[in-house]
Amino acid sequence: MASVELRPGESQESLLKRFRKAVAKSGILSTVRKKRWYMSKSEQRRLAKKKAIRRQKRRMRRLREQGIEE
Questions:
Q1: Which residues lie closer than 8 Å to 63 by C-beta, 6 or more apart?
Q2: Residue 2 domain-assigned?
């Protein structure tokens, strides 16, 4: 769990901003979003493979735009 302490003379807005940064950095929200619904192992593998293919296509497209071919 992310926690922050109020510094002397610190406003509530800056405290809240630091807390939000701490939560984002710890990855709590992304974990909660992923676990919101049950997903089987096979579904996780399928989605991971799909993301990898998209990432590879994006990388190849960027390389082609730069004039570099693998």
A1: 69, 70
A2: no
